[in-house]
Amino acid sequence: MLVRMVYNSVRNMTKARNFAFLIVVALLVFAILSLLSNTSSAASDDVNKEYSIVPENDTMALCFESLQDTRKLLYSSTDNDNDIEPEPIIYFVTPTYPRREQVAEITRLGQTLMHIPYLHWIVADDTSVCNNFLNNLLKKFGIPYTHIASPMPEFYRTKKLVPRGVANRRAALAWIRNNNKKTGVLYFGDDDNTFDLKLFSEIRSTKKVSMFPVGLIGDYAISTPVVKHGKVDGFFDSWPAKRKWPVDMAGFAVNLEYMGLSPNVTMPYKAGYEEDEFLKSIGLKMQDIEPKANNCTEILVWHTQTKNNKPPKIRISNGILRNNQFNLGVLLKKLETMGVSHISQSEGTAAQITKDGKSKSLISWFS
Ligand code: UGA
Ligand code: MN
Questions:
Q1: Confidence category of residue 5, pLDDT binned at 50, 70, 90
Q2: Does the record carry Manganese as a key word (predicted)?
Q3: Hey, what domains does the chain have and what are their CATH numbers?
């Protein structure tokens, strides 16, 4: 519109007026450009700008859309038929430990496992006391589970390389032995990893030891067996460290009958070498390994890590915390229980409430 107006007027003008007009336009363009280059004013303009919902200059491509619901029920009706062999149980062992992200991690993992039938979740917490809050969370998923409190011996905590999750996995191995679990499949799934649902149908058929790639590991971004003619023939892992079995904890599953053949199954407190030592202790041989995930060409588990930030301290008066006329007291106390944040009477970031774009102290909000 503006362009057309300028063009028309330019055409109708004499050459002299035309020249003067062009100078005015050039000055205008210069003024606009210098205004845009002023970042502080551009930033404040940005905040106040109304963004239209329909993209104007954005590139957007709709790639795929499915309007069909193809989800399957967990237990198909044929499962009740007596002549069908029962599915092997997957014993999914998760070491976990108290820190501010614990509830978030366990929520995400629990909701992944909710999709998996015939699974027994062994959650071993690196703490000496049973955490009731955690237990109530575990109960809600409806998955058969065992909640263990299995603290790492203090001695190892002070070491330069701490053997993380070992006390927990040892406790889970002891539970399996003490409860005479002799069939099924064992898998070590850390609380912060990401699991594709397909992983479970793959590992369920493990006869001895199955192996598969784990994404987001080390300088190769993957740790995987190397498969030749359908057989595992080596390993691709950026930290070989002279390990016989250079694999990640999430990269293998073990059949319990097979494990039962070895009398000295263990996982020593040897940081970095837990997988290697465990697999040696079950007497693993190269020919015993079954490659999964389409001959190790698919990534069904990811070694994701959650960024760890310090819990903030929020300054808020006790009176307001106890006031049950509004939600903040309940909410902040809950976060304190989970270790996500702390409440203090005298220190930390002062609690404020924002309304109509203005922030006020809680006292003045109440009055
Ligand atoms: C990597 C491997 O993926 C783990 O299988 C291995 O146990 C670990 O290194 C190690 O050997 O140190 P990474 O992501 O570096 O894992 O370690 P974390 O996720 O911090 O810890 C592994 C597991 O142990 C987690 O499930 C975590 O909840 C648990 N853990 C961690 C504890 O139980 N106590 C701790 O003090 C720290
Ligand atoms: Mn991890």
A1: very low
A2: yes
A3: 61-72+87-302 (3.90.550.10), 313-364 (no CATH)
